Amino acid sequence: MRLLELDQQLQHAEHAFGTISEGEKTSVDTDDMIRSYTEVLGPIAHMRQVHGSRIVYTNEAGCIEEADAIYTDNPDLWLAVKTADCVPVLISTPHAVAVAHCGWRGLEAEILPQTIKTLMDEYNITAVDVFIHIGPCISQNKYEVEEDKYKALFDEKHFKPAGKKGFVLMDLVGIAIDQAREMGVPKNHIVDSGLCTYQDKDLFHSYRRNKQEGVDGYNVQCSLVKRFEG
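and the corresponding structure tokens:
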């Protein structure tokens, strides 16, 4: 495994994005992956993600069962979210950090605004105290979906023609940003990495790319965040 170094900073926290290592297998046990990151970074809490809306507080390393967002105020603990095209969202505040797994189901269930609300309620802060970094995920130009199924779920502005009858290109990142903005998070507190898991083949795994190329199995990308102490 490798960690991608970016110039983009996250207020109140440090963060990291995992990338493909040379010779890495198509399918790797996620527990082994977390152990590898732990050897480099230190204790990590992660989730068995189910495309749901459950948000859990944690204070210790290990796997949280059936959750798609976790948060902590422990400055010695990294939080990790695993994705293979879905949107990994890292959230920081003066008192706590969180990660949210935002596929289309999670976005429909509004897991991101609910996570932001949880942090605001638990730590008596406002949306102005919230900072967001969106990690590597599938870009709109590569995310073709069935028009009838998905356009009924989200605002029209998050779709554009796919050049194929019955299909459109869906903007997961745009939906996530809009949901954060609707919660009151300032525009300049939201950073999009701009990295596409589908397109950046040398850097990231992609479920959709593997499926379209007939590759068996798929791996995941890991996005991590840890609160600064103090």
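(Above: one complete record from the training split.) The two ends are 30 Å apart (CA to CA).
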